TrEMBL record, chain A:
Full protein name: Protein transport protein SEC23
Domain Sec23/Sec24 helical stretches: 520-593
Upper lineage: Eukaryota, Metazoa, Chordata, Craniata, Vertebrata
Residue ranges of every copy of the Sec23/Sec24 beta-sandwich domain listed in the record: 403-506
Keyword presence, Oxidoreductase: no
Primary site of residence: membrane
Membrane-protein topology: Peripheral membrane protein
Gene from which the chain derives: SEC23B
Gene3D superfamilies: beta-sandwich domain of Sec23/24, Sec23/Sec24 helical domain, Severin, von Willebrand factor, type A domain, Zn-finger domain of Sec23/24
Subcellular compartments: Cytoplasmic vesicle, COPII-coated vesicle membrane; Endoplasmic reticulum membrane; Cytoplasm, Cytosol
Family recorded in the similarity comment: Belongs to the SEC23/SEC24 family. SEC23 subfamily.
Role description: Component of the coat protein complex II (COPII) which promotes the formation of transport vesicles from the endoplasmic reticulum (ER). The coat has two main functions, the physical deformation of the endoplasmic reticulum membrane into vesicles and the selection of cargo molecules for their transport to the Golgi complex.
Stretches assigned to the Gelsolin-like domain: 605-691
One GO BP annotation of this record: intracellular protein transport
From TrEMBL, chain B:
Transmembrane segments: none
Database matches in InterPro entries: ADF-H/Gelsolin-like_dom_sf, Beta-sandwich_Sec23_24, Gelsolin-like_dom, Gelsolin-like_dom_sf, Sec23/24_helical_dom, Sec23/24_helical_dom_sf, Sec23/24_trunk_dom, SEC23_SEC24_subfamily
Record field: compositional bias (Polar residues): 1-17, 54-64, 94-106, 120-129, 139-153
Source organism (scientific name): Gallus gallus
Pro residues composition bias: residue spans: 84-93
Span of domain Zinc finger Sec23/Sec24-type: 274-311
Mode of membrane association: Peripheral membrane protein
Family according to the record: Belongs to the SEC23/SEC24 family. SEC24 subfamily.
Keywords: Cytoplasm, Cytoplasmic vesicle, Endoplasmic reticulum, ER-Golgi transport, Membrane, Metal-binding, Phosphoprotein, Protein transport, Transport, Zinc
Superkingdom per UniProt: Eukaryota
UniProt-listed PANTHER family: PROTEIN TRANSPORT PROTEIN SEC24D, SEC24-RELATED PROTEIN
Statement: the UniProt record of this protein carries the keyword DNA damage: no
Protein name as it appears in the record: SEC24 homolog D, COPII coat complex component
Pfam entry (one): Gelsolin
Length: 738, 946
């Protein structure tokens, strides 16, 4: 049998699913004692080049409360043309089209390799994708120019039939009409006044007048194509116009006096964008793409006033509840985000500025709608330019890697219930028999809406085992979960992807080692991280770090092998071995554990410990923190480079050594989204802080014994090192007092 | 040069040969002021009552002029003038659409020519010493026996009952025997016309407004700038109360002066700024008395002694006058300007040059009528003619463009744009200006973009079906734009309909004929919603003047729409049922003239007086935030402010009554300036002095404005009664105190007021003061508004139109023919007349107009061929045509509004409209004839005297 690592990988590749536990504890009580909840990471649209979609409708279970999709786990009576639902055990007739099926003539959805299958269905009219650019004009000239160029360039990347619209904002908001000849037209709104969707539509002339025809006038052709066409036009029709329009775009013309921030009406601009799409294209795939170069400074959604002498809220202000505009602004953006989600549209935020831009308040716009959130220093950086370009990347099959308006439904066999989901989604509030009363994340529903998603979009879904402690291991020994994702494909087709998985039940008392062995510590770390972040955001009070620590200690107590009160006896099995380290780095950073590679003359590039001891003078380090790629030249290497050895033919190998991490970094940079910040630095360089802040401070100015040793670089920090952390953890785990 | 002939010389009889019998009535020179004698034995002291029985007078239908007055043969009999009954006459195609639609009107129109009910009037028939028959006693100046007749319409409604249409003809007063406005005008012309009038004497009475002469400023403001109701104020308030002569000045601070008169000098004291009295803040002027060898001066207004600033010091000559007296305009002239310093500027910043914003209603109607295209095409050439200072190359005025229907469209026409940008503001609830840079531009720099825009606007909205409009937000937008640009300016709004779209200032049709002659009639003249008042206030506060061009097809509520225009010193123009072909010339001429007008912006006027009296009331296109500062967002050459004065102490006869009017304003080039007008009046303890120096034209201006203001708060009836009673009081007081003793029944009018009754009657008959359902409410509101800002010359013409015979012209002379009195009797079948009142112009053609005149004017062979459609006379190369066109041009010259020419043929229905302007006759709307009114006033006087 393959190892669990292989099993996990295989499952991930086929179904886009990773469970924290791959063998499930069979009772509620035991499940709660596992500390890490039974949960999975689901990537609904995981790229499957080998999965040809089928061109028909899925077959559903006829029980109204179930409606599970026919899948390979169902028992089929080929003779009677019946199938039994593996979730509710309802026996269902096959539809007439399936009359010809037999053991040897199975439809795809019954074949085991199609545990994930995609249907293309014909439902409703197909509307082209919509891209609505919302552009801040309170930018420095250079920034605006770069942004304009990026936007102009993007027109060539859009699907030709996509509809595109442009809203610009500064002190005021302009909604540009795109089909004008001879004169450029825009509708202007003041940035201080919030408007309802109805008002916005009225003001844009989108609501149809009651009596449009004047008496005595010849009746015109009754309907012009689509009323909103003035603001949203097919790219192929207006790309020249729009290119010119973008080209003529000026910085916000209103004077900004000394000591003031420019008046930036981001809140109303977004509100108008949302209202425009809401009135014209509800429930169709649409991206609102917000490009902003600073914090909103007026109107609803303002994050900071325009007086420069009043700085933008700091962490301390927020903590002390001293951030004047935060609550109101957050509420504004939350309302917008919820409306957007209801409409099935998504909001991207591209914020490029050296100072803060108020993403904290605005984050829900992207989070709830599945939009991208990208932060950079300037629009004139490759970080932004490449990232933005990558939004329009195409997948292996030549299709845009974006999908819209997904509805994810989760069905469980009866021993399981759904506790909630954490991810770029909103609840659709669909209650049902498989919905748990205990919520983890966005709960109380079995369906979620994900307005914007791509092949990487991953949701964490948390389950609750409801089987009672004394009950036998459920029938068949397997529990099943089905994920049904209906979405609008970038080709505007409506598609349904169905993934059905099953896992074995095990009695936690007698078969704990099976459960333990099937632990996916990476998935578990991510699932715990999401829970932690969710708690941090949604709950006040309990310190998330303490909660995380507590969970970790409990896990160690449960799965560690040790003698009571003897920290040195503490051991964790291999399937748990990395987990504490992940938690350590999670506590220290906004993200999970960065990867560190070392390049030296001593051998091929190798991964090394994310530890200060890895920083050696004759090494080049490459650190990938997801958002940052850092190349760090050790002291000696840096000196050699300054001396120019790489240019000497006899030191060509040095040249290769220098080049190797660059090439590797390039590879990462080319695929990662969003494009990471790329830092090339050296020993003593100011940017070396990016590395030093991430490595485990095993050597600091505090543990003097390390000084002078050739074993790494000391970090000037008071943070505890992994070693200390582990020691402490062991102590707590084995403590009988805990 | 003495111009005091009115005081000392009684040359009345000599200079007025046509006054015939009246001259004899003057008797000895010292009684020359007695105009006539009008017997009335009625000794009751009752106030005039409305109703048929209270006030009766006589007028008869058959004239018999030949009996005593040769030169005025009566041209027509009543019968000849009577119109055929109406059905076959098409309705008139003209502006006053509401007036003539009824087929019954032709009958009513002749009511004044038909004797009344025949009921004898007991009062008048008991006149002592009257003989039956003509009864005219030239020797005594008596007239008006046999006063039985139809009722005078004043003060009640005109009861047009059938009874009045029958009855025996009776004798009537000869119209030639009562004071003639034309005669007065002509006399003044012949005595003072063409001469130089030097303003070197305090309290001298200037020539009439109708008299052309050259005015020389020698220390007092030219009458073009200031005219007064009297040039000699009574010394005490008791006297003033007794006489009840309004003490008022009509100030037209930016009046146009002819080419041959000197424009105002500009005094620049640099950073020191204008020199002002420390106490009352009056500006240095000829009324300041230098003392102590020139080191100090005494203020003529408050008598405060001030130090002369060192830079201004100058020695005095032997008569105590500064040596530089004639070198400094502020010492020797009545009118001059100061360059203002930063202290006089908004926020102490030098002002920006003003801006003009063109705001065009592009709703369906205006597009469909072709108006939008007309405006856009015209602007392309017009923008080159923006006013500029004489010494400057081009105008400093910037221009901006807005179109609107129920939303607003702003345009960015910045010179570096390849094409204009349109910015739509649909948030009309809280309108704002969407752009700063590129909205207001220099036309020379942005010419191509602006022209591009003006080409596009008509096309852009070519298929609009938007019929709703907004209005208040349009003004608001313009005002905000000026505010944002930190400059004053004018909005030119071209609007056509009642603003019914959902927005601030939304109006509904509240016109209600049932309100006429009720206490609620006044509401029709008040704005419908309050927002217009606050908008007006904001506009004034920001120096935003609103010019409104209206093109209504129906009721648009001018009382509301025009309010902001009124308070911001703007001009209201109205073109009913605008037709591109016939009305374009009138509209375009108005537009051109308005754009080219010299205007002062962001103005504030202060009227200071010497001790003993002060300005108490102000009338005009102004806004008053307090009791003294007259604010005007702009003031142009046609706008006049009428200021009423009251005593607060005794006036000193030696020092007289001094008035200084100072207008602080921003010039068209953006320079902050002060325009100062000074005038000195006399004071007297003798009422006769006051009466001698009255100016009837100014009085009428004052009466009109005060009455038109009063109708906002009082019932029309009360306002009219007050006018009549005040007229009677003034005349009765004269009679009592100034005239030599004579029979109570004699009507004696002061020389300077002898045409007051006819003018007051004209005022009473004006559409504003006539509550008749035939007169559209908007028309009344429009007239009301226009009159409120008129100067003396304009009100004179408006209330007593000019009627010029053109059938017997001396084609060789350049002169404009002498006018005739506005009465039907002056018309003749064989004649052709031009009538003009400043708003309308008619060419009336008698049925027997000489064919050569017709041929010459219209190039058609006969009367029947003349088309009345035309609104312009064709350009023909013959002397008739040239001469008459030059007359028309002369009439039009210097008038604030372009008069649309209407051609009226005798005995065709449109003649009804024309008839209303024959103001000496009884009006179809119930106004009394001159004769009737005179009788009525006389009766009141008699009652007062008893």
């Amino acid at each position: 049998m393959a190892t669990y690592l292989e099993f996990i990988q295989q499952n991930e590749e086929r179904d886009g699913v990773r469970f924290s536990w791959n063998v499930w504890p069979s009772s509620r009580l035991e499940a709660t004692r596992m500390v890490v909840p039974l949960a999975c990471l689901l990537t609904p649209l995981r790229e499957r080049p080998d999965l040809p979609p089928v061109q028909y409708e899925p077959v559903l279970c006829s029980r109204p409360t179930c409606k599970a999709v026919l899948n390979p786990l169902c028992q089929v009576d080929y003779r009677a043309k019946l199938w039994a639902c593996n979730f509710c055990f309802q026996r269902n007739q096959f539809p007439p089209a399936y009359a010809g099926i037999s053991e040897v003539n199975q439809p795809a959805e019954l074949m085991p390799q199609f545990s994930t299958i995609e249907y293309i269905v014909q439902r409703g009219p197909q509307t082209p994708l919509i891209f609505l650019y919302v552009v801040d004009t309170c930018l420095e000239e250079e920034d605006l120019q770069a942004l304009k160029e990026s936007l102009q360039m993007s027109l060539s990347l859009l699907p030709a039939d996509a509809l595109v619209g442009l809203i610009t904002f500064g002190r005021m908001i302009q909604v540009h009409e795109l089909s004008c000849e001879g004169i450029s037209k825009s509708y202007v709104f003041r940035g201080t006044k919030d408007l309802t969707a109805k008002q916005i539509q009225d003001m844009l002339g989108l609501s149809r007048p009651a009596v449009p025809i004047q008496q005595g006038r010849p009746l015109q052709a009754p309907e012009q194509p689509v009323i909103s066409s003035r603001f949203l036009q097919p790219v192929h029709k207006i790309d020249m116009n729009l290119t010119d329009l973008l080209g003529e775009l000026q910085r916000d013309p209103w004077p900004v006096t000394q000591g003031k921030r420019p008046l930036r009406s981001t809140g109303v601009a977004l509100s108008i964008a949302v209202g425009l799409l809401e009135g014209t294209f509800p429930n169709t795939g649409a991206r609102i793409m917000l490009f902003t170069g600073g914090p909103p400074t007026q109107g609803p959604g303002m994050v900071v006033g325009d007086e420069l002498k009043t700085p933008i809220r700091s962490w301390h202000d927020i903590e002390k509840d001293n951030a004047r505009f935060m609550k109101k602004a957050t509420k504004h953006y939350e309302t917008l985000a919820n409306r957007t989600a209801t409409n099935g549209h998504c909001i991207d935020i591209y914020a490029c500025a050296l100072d803060q831009t108020g993403l904290l308040e605005m984050k829900c716009c992207a989070n709830l709608t599945g939009g991208h959130m990208v932060m950079g220093d300037s629009f004139n950086t490759s970080l932004f330019k490449q990232t933005f370009q990558r939004v329009f990347n195409k997948g292996l099959n030549g299709e845009f890697r974006m999908a819209f308006g997904a509805n994810l439904e989760v069905k469980t066999s009866r021993e399981l219930k759904i506790a909630g989901a954490i991810g770029p989604c909103v609840s659709l509030n669909v209650k049902g028999p498989c919905v748990s009363e205990n919520e983890l994340g966005i709960g109380g529903t079995s369906q979620w809406k994900i307005c914007g998603l791509d092949p990487c979009t991953t949701l964490a879904i948390y389950f609750e085992v409801v089987n009672q402690h004394n009950a036998p291991i459920p029938q068949g020994g397997r529990g099943a979960v089905q994920f049904v994702t209906q979405y609008q494909h970038s080709s505007t087709q409506k598609r349904i992807r169905v993934t059905t998985i099953a896992r074995n039940w095990a009695d936690a008392q007698s078969q704990l080692q099976h459960i333990e062995a099937a632990f996916d510590q990476e998935a578990a770390a991510v699932l715990m991280a999401r829970l932690g972040v969710y708690r941090a955001e949604s709950e006040e009070g309990p310190d998330v770090l303490r909660w995380l620590d507590r969970q970790l200690i409990r896990l160690c107590q449960k799965f560690g092998q040790y003698n009571k009160d003897d920290p040195n006896s503490f051991r964790l099995s291999e399937s748990f071995s990395l987990y504490p380290q992940f938690m350590f780095h999670l506590r220290r950073s906004p993200f999970l554990q960065p990867i560190l590679y070392a390049y030296s003359f001593h051998g091929p590039p190798e991964p090394v410990l994310l530890d200060s001891s890895s920083i050696l003078p004759d090494r080049i380090l490459l650190m990938d923190t997801f958002f940052q790629i850092v190349i760090y030249l050790g002291e000696t290497i840096a000196q050699w480079q300054k001396a120019g050895y790489q240019d000497m033919p006899e030191y060509e190998n040095f040249k290769h050594l220098l080049q190797a991490p660059l090439d590797d970094a390039q590879e990462i940079l080319q695929t990662r989204f969003p494009m990471p910040r790329y830092v090339h630095t050296e020993h003593g360089g100011s940017q070396a802080r990016f590395l030093l802040s991430k490595v485990n401070p095993s050597q600091t100015h505090n543990n003097l014994y390390a000084w002078g040793q050739e074993s790494g670089a000391p970090i000037l920090t008071d943070d505890v090192s992994l070693q200390v952390f582990m020691d402490h953890l062991k102590k707590l785990a084995v403590s009988s007092a805990a | 040069m003495s111009q005091q002939g009115y005081v000392t010389a009684p040359p009345y009889s000599q200079s007025q040969p046509r006054m015939g019998g009246f001259s004899a009535g003057f008797g000895p020179p010292n009684s020359s002021l007695h105009y006539g004698h009008y017997g009335d034995p009625n000794s009751s002291h009752a106030a005039p009552q409305p109703g048929p029985s209270a006030i009766q007078s006589s007028h008869t239908s058959s004239g018999h002029p030949a009996s005593f007055q040769g030169p005025q043969p009566l041209p027509l009999t009543q019968h000849q003038m009577a119109l055929p009954p109406g059905p076959q006459i098409p309705p008139p195609a003209n502006n006053f659409s509401g007036l003539c639609a009824q087929s019954s009107l032709p009958n009513m129109a002749r009511q004044d020519g038909i004797p009344g009910s025949g009921l004898p009037n007991p009062n008048l028939q008991q006149l002592p010493g009257q003989t039956p028959g003509p009864g005219y006693h030239p020797q005594q100046g008596n007239y008006g026996p046999q006063m039985a007749g139809s009722q005078l319409s004043y003060p009640g409604a005109f009861p047009g009952g059938p009874a009045q249409l029958s009855g025996p003809p009776q004798k009537r007063l000869d119209p030639d025997s009562i004071p003639s406005p034309i005669q007065v005008i002509e006399n003044d012309k012949s005595s003072r016309g063409g001469q130089i009038y030097a303003t070197n004497t305090r309290g001298q009475v200037p020539p009439l407004v109708t008299t052309d002469c050259l005015i020389q400023d020698q220390g007092h403001a030219s009458p073009r700038y200031i005219r007064c109701t009297t040039y000699c104020f009574p010394s005490t308030s008791d006297m003033a109360k007794q006489a009840r002569i309004p003490l008022a000045a009509v100030i037209q601070p930016f009046a146009t002066v002819p080419q041959n008169e000197t424009p105002l000098y500009v005094v620049n004291h640099g950073e020191a700024g204008p020199i002002r009295c420390n106490r009352c803040k009056a500006y240095m002027c000829p009324f300041m008395q230098f003392i102590e060898g020139g080191r100090r001066y005494q203020c003529g207004f408050c008598n405060c002694i001030n130090d002369v600033p060192p830079f201004f010091f100058q020695h005095l000559d032997h008569i105590g006058r500064r040596v530089d007296h004639y070198e400094r305009p502020e010492l020797s002239l009545g009118s001059y300007e100061y360059v203002a310093t930063l202290d006089y500027c908004r926020n102490n910043k030098p002002p920006n040059p003003p801006a003009y914003i063109f705001m065009i209603d592009v709703s369906y109607r205006n597009i469909n009528s072709g108006l939008v295209k007309l405006i856009c095409d015209e602007l392309k050439t017009l923008l080159d003619k923006l006013p500029r200072e004489e010494q400057e190359e081009s105008s400093a005025i910037r221009v901006g463009f807005v179109t609107y229907n129920k939303v607003l469209h702003f345009f960015n026409v910045k010179s570096n744009l390849a094409q204009p940008q349109m910015m739509v503001v649909s948030d009309v609830g809280e309108v704002f200006v969407p752009l700063l840079d590129g909205f207001l531009v220099n036309f020379q720099e942005s010419r191509s973009v602006v022209n591009n825009l003006l080409d596009q606007i008509p096309e852009m909205f070519a298929d609009t079906n938007e019929s709703e409009t907004i209005f208040a937000p349009v003004i608001q937008a313009g005002m905000e734009a000026l505010k944002a640009a930190e400059c004053a300016g004018k909005l030119f709004i071209f609007h056509s309909s009642l603003p019914t779209a959902e927005a601030p200032g939304k109006l509904r049709n509240r016109d209600d004929k049932k309100l006429l002659n009720t206490d609620k009639e006044k509401t029709l003249f008040q704005p419908q919603v309050n927002s217009y008042e606050s908008l007006a206030r904001d506009c004034v506060a920001n120096g935003c003047c609103v010019n409104l061009f209206l093109f209504p097809n129906q009721y648009v509520d001018i009382a509301s729409l025009g309010l902001v225009t009124m308070h911001t010193g703007g001009t209201l123009y109205k073109y009913n049922n605008f037709q591109l072909n016939s009305d374009s010339p009138q509209f375009l001429t108005d537009l051109r003239r308005d754009i080219e007008k010299k205007t002062g912006f962001d103005a504030i006027m202060r009227v200071r007086t010497s001790t003993g009296f002060r300005a108490t009331d102000f009338f005009g296109a102004i806004y008053m935030n307090n009791t003294t500062d007259v604010e005007m967002a702009a003031v142009d050459c046609d706008k006049a402010v009428t200021v009423e004065f009251k005593h607060d102490d005794k006036l000193n006869e030696d020092s007289g009554a001094l008035i200084q009017c100072a207008v602080l304003y921003t010039s068209i080039s953006g320079q902050r300036r002060l325009r100062i007008h000074n005038i000195g009046l006399n004071c007297s303890t003798q009422l006769a002095d006051v009466y001698k120096t009255c100016e009837t034209d100014a009085l009428i201006n004052f009466f009109a404005k005060s009455a038109f203001k009063a109708i906002l708060s009082q019932p029309l009836k009360a306002v009219r009664e007050i006018l009549v009673s005040q007229t009677a009081h003034m005349l009765a007081c004269y009679r009592k105190n100034c005239a030599s003793p004579s029979a109570v029944s004699q009507l004696i009018l002061p020389d300077a007021m002898k045409v007051l009754p006819v003018y007051v009657n004209c005022l009473l008959k004006s559409s504003v003061l006539t509550g008749r359902p035939e007169i559209p409410t908007d028309e009344r509101a429009y007239h009301r508004q226009l009159v409120m800002s008129m100067g003396v010359a304009d009100t004179q013409l408006f209330f007593y139109p000019q009627l010029l015979p053109i059938h017997n012209l001396d084609l060789k002379s350049d002169a404009v023919p002498a006018a005739v009195r506005c009465s039907e009797e002056r018309l003749s079948e064989g004649g052709a007349f031009i009538l003009a009142n400043g708003l309308s112009m008619f060419l009336w053609l008698g049925v027997s107009t000489p064919p050569e005149l017709i041929q010459g004017l219209f190039n058609v062979p006969s009367f029947a061929h003349i088309s009345t459609e035309a609104t312009l006379l064709p350009d023909l190369a013959n002397t008739y045509s040239k001469k008459i066109k030059s007359i028309v041009e002369h009439i039009q010259n210097q008038k604030p509004y372009t008069m649309k020419l209407m051609i009226v043929k005798q005995r065709e229905q449109p003649e009804m409209l024309f008839r209303q302007f024959l103001v000496e006759d009884k009006s179809i709307h119930g106004g009394a004839s001159y004769v009737d009114f005179l009788c009525c006033v006389h009766k009141e006087i008699c009652q007062l005297l008893n």
